[in-house]
Amino acid sequence: MTLEACTNLVRSEDPDRFGAVLVADPQDRPGLITLYALNLEIARAPFQSGEPLLAEMRLQWWVDRLAEMGTGRPPPLHDVLTPLWEAWGTEAGQLAPLAEARRRDCFREPFATSEEVADYVAHTSGRLMTLAAGRLGADARGQAVAADQGLGAGLVAWLRALPRLQPIGLGLASADTADAARLARLAQEAFGRAAGSRRLLPKRAAAALYPGPGVGPLLTGVLSGKVNIFKEVPVVAPFRHRASLARLALTGRWWR
Q1: The predicted structure's pLDDT at residue 2
Q2: Number of alpha carbons in the 13 Å side-chain half-sphere of residue 204
Q3: Given its phi and psi angles, is residue 39 left (phi above 0), alpha (psi -120 to 50 degrees) or beta?
Q4: Contact between residue 163 and residue 231 where contact means Cβ atoms under 8 Å apart
Q5: How much is the pLDDT for 1?
Q6: pLDDT of residue 256
Q7: How far apart are CA 136 and CA 146, in angstroms?
Q8: pLDDT digits over 194-247, tens only?
C-alpha cells in the first residue's frame, strides 16, 4: 500500500494531471498524486454497478471512509486510502464532498440545463482544483480563483466527454448545440475571471491549475458551430500535449 500504486493509477488514467504533478515541487507531489488518485476512484465508483442503489452504496463507502479519516481514524489498508492518509492525515475529511458530488451519477439522469452542468462541474472539477491549490499554498482568495479555473477546465473536460456521456444518460437532456455553446461561454468566462485574478495565487500553485491542452481550439470550435460536440471531439496531437506541459514547466503560466 504505497504511493507507487497511486502514481501508476494517475499516470495511466489521468495523464494530463500526472504531467502537471511533475511540475510541482517534490514535497508537494504526494499530496497531489493521492488527491488525483482518490478523484479517479470516486469518479468511477457510481459506474461499478448498473443498479442505482448498489452504485450509491459503493460511493457511500468512500464518503464514510473519508469522514472517518477526518475524525482521526486511519483507513483500512488500501492502495489509495493508505497513501492518502499518509499524505493528508485528518485533512482527508475535507475531501468527502468530492464523493458526495458524484451521487447523481448513480442514477444516470441527464442534465436539464447547462446551468445544472456548471453546478455539477463546480462541485467536482472545481472543488478538486480548489483543494489542490490550497494544498500548494493558496489562501482563501487564491482558492476562489482556483475554483474559477477548475470550473473552466472541468467544463472543457465535460464537453470532451459528451459523446460518451450522452448515450449513457449523463449528458444533456436536450442534446441541443445551443446548450453546448452556453457551456463553452461559461468556460471562457470562468477562465477569464481566473486569469484576471492570477496574482492572488502563489507561483507554487501553478501545478494545480493546469487546464489541459487544446482548450482554446475546442471552445472556439463549439462557439462557432464548427464542432458539434455531441458527435465529435477535436483530437489534440501528442506534440501539443507535450508543448502545453512544457510551457507550464518553463514559464509557470497556467492561465489562458
Answers
A1: 83
A2: 16
A3: alpha
A4: yes
A5: 62
A6: 85
A7: 11
A8: 999 999 999 999 999 999 999 999 999 999 999 999 988 888 998 999 999 999
CB contact at 8 A, 21 and 110: no
Q: What is the pLDDT of residues 166-186, one digit of tens each?
A: 999 999 999 999 999 999 999
Kindly tell me if the per-residue pLDDT of 133 is higher than 80: yes
For the whole model, what pTM was predicted? 0.97
HEC profile of the chain: CCHHHHHHHHHHHCHHHHHHHCCCCHHHHHHHHHHHHHHHHHHHHHHCCCCHHHHHHHHHHHHHHHHHHHCCCCCCCCCCHHHHHHHHHHHHHHHHHHHHCCHHHHHCCCECCHHHHHHHHHHHHHHHHHHHHHHCCCCHHHHHHHHHHHHHHHHHHHHHHHHHHHHHCCCECCCCHHHHHHHHHHHHHHHHHHHHCHHHCCHHHHHHCCCCCCHHHHHHHHHHCCCCCCCCCCCCCHHHHHHHHHHHHHHCCCCC
CB crowding 8-34: b at 16 or more within 10 Å, else e: ebbeebbebbbbbbebbeeebbbbbbb
Task: Report the range of poorest mean pLDDT among 26-30, 41-45, 103-107, 234-238.
Answer: 234-238
The dihedral built from the CA positions of residue 214, 10, 122 and 45, taken in this order, carries a sign that is positive
Distance, CA of 213 to chain centre: 14
Identify the residue whose cell numbers are 458524484.
102
**Which three cell numbers mark 156?**
472543457
